[in-house]
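Can't paste images in this forum, so I'm doing it all in text. The chain is below; anyone willing to post the predicted structure tokens underneath?
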Amino acid sequence: MNIINLFKIALRAIAGNKTRAFLTMLGIIIGVCSVITMLAIGQGSKRSIQAQISEMGSNMIMIQPGGDRRGGVRQSSSDMQTLRREDYESIRNEARLLSAVSPSVNSGGQFIYGNRNTPSTMYGVTEEYLTIRQLKIDDGVMFGEHEVKTAAKVCVLGKTVIDELFPNGEEPIGKVIRFGSIPFTVIGTIESKGYNSMGMDQDNMVLAPYTSVMKRILAINHIQGINASAINEEITNDAIDEITEILRRNHKLQDGQENNFTIRSQQELSEMMNTTTDMLTILLGCVAGISLIVGGIGIMNIMYVSVTERTKEIGLRMSVGARGIDILSQFLIEAILISVTGGLIGVLFGAGLSYLINIVFNWPVFVQPWSVVLSFAVCTFTGVFFGWYPAKKAAALDPIEAIRYE
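Text version of the structure:
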């Protein structure tokens, strides 16, 4: 019997039991829809995180004081004061693989203007910090080398701070705000970047010369960190090696001694986040895939019922010349048609649900083509795997016994 006739017989059998066929498909539909939606959420989250990291500067390098041992006790990095202005100046003057370098000190507190106030963080940096963090001045100017040398009391505001202190559209440039009791003149504003993928407000900050924060606010002579930017992402690791060599020499560390500083890059953060989101995506896919297994068991159950109900029909067909392979192919095609049709509907529902989640909940989603191909492949495999045994049972029936079956 040719394959076209087998398809026609299988389609007539499915059409004769529409409700049962649909209920059988339902498990596959739900399974495929769940897999595509979960993978879309996982991939969307991954892309969103990658985009946010890229916005922060994918070639950014962060240098922090490292933990050390004192009296045999491991100290935390927050207790250490191993980074100095001399370290920043050495890196700026000697490093050849960096496009920008800025020291970093910060202090949190209340910013006050008139009768309004808002909590935020003042970051003590240099002009190159804008390049490193990919920030842009929206209005006014950024402080320069002269303000850094003189520890000038000037600052640049992020949009969140502007909205809190100047809510009525008042021009902030030239105004004097207070950080605690210390006045700072506003000389510029920063373009808004909004919230990042981790829910952090990137506009809730104030930038000032690092010397001003060190001397006038924190009263310290060390720096809390150094931010740098490699010339490009490909040489980030080489740039880290170059920085390490400069700092070890500055700190007079001998061979075998541990670094008393730590260096991290956005590349490392990106790889870590990618690993995490990939694991989460696989977990979501596996959980959703359980629905496909349940759907496959449903197909096997219904095909068993179908074989039992149509035992007499099978016997009649075999008695007029149908071979075992024809019977097996017929039932196997029925199982595959049910599975693949359910898979197609599931793909449509999965893509639609992903789009709906993006619109309603504003979650980042991305339906990858490979997830659709994978779903179809799994559906076909499910139809073959769970339809094979009932089909084989039908093909193995004795024609005489099958005709006598009531």
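Confidence is low (pLDDT under 50) at residues 70-74. Residues 3-52+272-404 form one domain.
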